[in-house]
Amino acid sequence: MLKKLTKDHLHKKFKRLFDNIIGVNEQQAAMAMKAYQVNINGLMYYVGRAQVSDIDEILDIERAVYNGATPWNKQAFISELHRKHDRLYLVIRKDDQLIAFIGSSYSRGTKDMHITNIAVLPGWQCRGIGSFLLNVIIDKARQINACQVSLEVRVSNTKAHKVYSELGFESQGISAGYYFGDHEDALKMALLLSEDKN
User: Fold this and answer.
1) Is pLDDT at 134 greater than 90 in this prediction?
2) Domains delineated in the chain
3) How far apart are CA 106 and CA 188, in angstroms?
4) Among 20, 38, 51, 24, CA closest to 144
């Protein structure tokens, strides 16, 4: 037997659908970002949203940082970059060379901005570039009313632990065998934003 849809029921159903569409559109607008130049510790860089045409250079950075390996392949990056409503990937260039990138995903359900990956070419590390990218994602998370920014980091990467801790990230426990290949454990970290909103 078919359920008779009342006017009120149809109105509620339409409102939910409309709210979901508007919510996605507002979120996509919030995740939008125009390219700009920035001064980081006295040097000028170009910051912009990652494009599919940047992927080969992003993979080169991964190889340089991860001893020739690419934790993410080209198809994974293509898939991520096409999801503009809930993904934000940024690149930094110096004199037209891509030297760093960061990726993040946003969950409306959990209000979590999750940093999926970040890497800086070895020759450009310890210049504030990674911290700058993290702060851009943190600022974006605040703009879209995220409750937290989260990430995983290798337990052996103590240099990164220090950077994250200085930005306010706190340990949330260990994910055993998290990393593909060597099965190294990951330290889960999060920066809670709900308490510091203005």
Assistant:
1) yes
2) 33-196 (3.40.630.30)
3) 17
4) 24
